[in-house]
């Protein structure tokens, strides 16, 4: 399924807010981690490793392409960036396709 122009426009409008919220969540997790009782060197290197991993996630960076939108949304859901509820403004066709693809991907895993 190719996303409609309306869904694509809506996705481009919402993605920056979704990413901002996700990065804010990550920062709170980093702060909590930095406040733990581990040695400074351990915190430094563990945080560096975590940031290196997190900066590759779709909640932080995405290559916005209409052809990838469905899979990007699935990745955003799977990473906890968004929920299906946050897709309420999107078309029923898009939501149905996302559900179908998620079920198929879970079945094949």
Explain how this protein is built.
The model has no long low-confidence stretch (mean pLDDT 94). This protein is 66% helix and 0% strand. The chain has one domain. The radius of gyration is 17 Å and the shape is elongated. The chain has 109 residues and is mainly alpha-helical. Helix 1 packs antiparallel against helix 2 and helix 3 packs across helix 4. The longest helix has 30 residues. The chain starts with a helix and ends with a helix.
Instruction: Kindly report how far apart the N and C termini lie.
Output: 22 Å
How many domains, in number, for the residues? 1
Overall spatial form: elongated
Helix content: 55-70%
Number of strands: 0
Query: Which sequence of SSEs, written as H and E, runs from N to C?
Result: HHHH
Assembly level:
single chain
List low-confidence stretches.
none
Global Rg? 17 Å
> Roughly what is the average pLDDT, rounded to an integer?
94
SSE class: mainly alpha
Please report the number of helical segments. Answer: 4
What composes the largest sheet? none
Proportion of beta-strand residues: under 5%
Which secondary structure elements does this structure contain, and how are they paired or packed?
Layout: H1 5-34, H2 40-54, H3 69-78, H4 92-108
Helix pairs in contact: 1-2, 3-4
Fill in the keyword field for this structure.
109 residues, mainly alpha
Summarize the structure.
The chain has 109 residues and is mainly α. It has four helices and no strands. It has helices spanning 5-34, 40-54, 69-78, 92-108.
């Amino acid at each position: 399924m190719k996303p409609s122009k309306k869904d694509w426009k809506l996705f481009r409008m919402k993605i920056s807010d979704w990413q901002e919220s996700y990065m804010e969540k990550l920062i709170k997790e980093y702060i909590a981690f930095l406040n733990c009782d581990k040695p400074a060197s351990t915190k430094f290197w563990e945080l560096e490793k975590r940031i290196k991993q997190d900066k590759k996630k779709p909640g932080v960076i995405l290559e916005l392409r209409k052809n990838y939108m469905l899979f990007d949304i699935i990745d955003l859901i799977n990473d906890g960036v968004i929920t299906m509820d946050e897709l309420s403004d999107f078309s029923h066709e898009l939501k149905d396709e996302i559900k179908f693809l998620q079920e198929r991907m879970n079945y094949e895993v």
